[in-house]
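Lab notes, practical 5.
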Amino acid sequence: MMRKAQILRQMNDNDTDSWQSLVRISSLDGELFLHSAYPTLADESVFFGPDTYRFARAIRAAVAARQPTAPSVIRAVDIGCGAGPGAVMLAKAYPKAEVFGVDINNAALRLTTINARLANVNVIACHSDLLKNIQGDFDLIVSNPPYLVDQFKRKYRHGGGSLGSELSVAIVDASCERLAPGGTLILYTGSAIVSGEDLFYEEIKKKLAQSTLLWTYEEVDPDVFGEELETEFYAHADRIAAVVLTISRL
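Output from the prediction step:
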């Protein structure tokens, strides 16, 4: 079955009995998620790791904090859904909602579809650059985008810009335009800290200063992907912090 599904790689051309699985299975909130096996070197690798669990905690906290008087979650979306953990969590929390998982990575969309079926929830996996291919507003938007600078610009890892925050900023822009009244964006991402300054925070602060949106910003891990500081891209950075940005429309 694994050969038929093309998720086996022969380890050695001369040894037909040695094979390696191209997928792994991880558990989260009582569900199983298929994702790319280590090492994730291919452009369309689908990552699942420590960031996924921190992202899940952010979603869990936001769902728990949502006031009973808040508008019902009718439409929700996970931008850059990867293996689909965010979308599956939303579908489990709001079983009557229309939940989308969007990504530009076709391998991610296939795995999101499989993982949603394993969890017995309805998730619409849709190829979309941000929210361009789906219409309407959303009551809840979540995202755990790539936020590093990757020299190979692999889809699952490269966030764009000089320090990896370009995609995260684009998600904020796209989401703020599509939040329904009472809607919320939960963005888990990373930010380079340079000379003590959180560059992503400063950019978001300027962007939202004149808006009527309510927002909070929290550093949830002060030092992630420390090995990246040894690369030329982060030579001038102090550290990379994991952060959660929450934006709500009244």
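Observations recorded by the TA: The domain at 39-248 is CATH 3.40.50.150 (Rossmann fold). The chain is about 25% helix and 30% strand.
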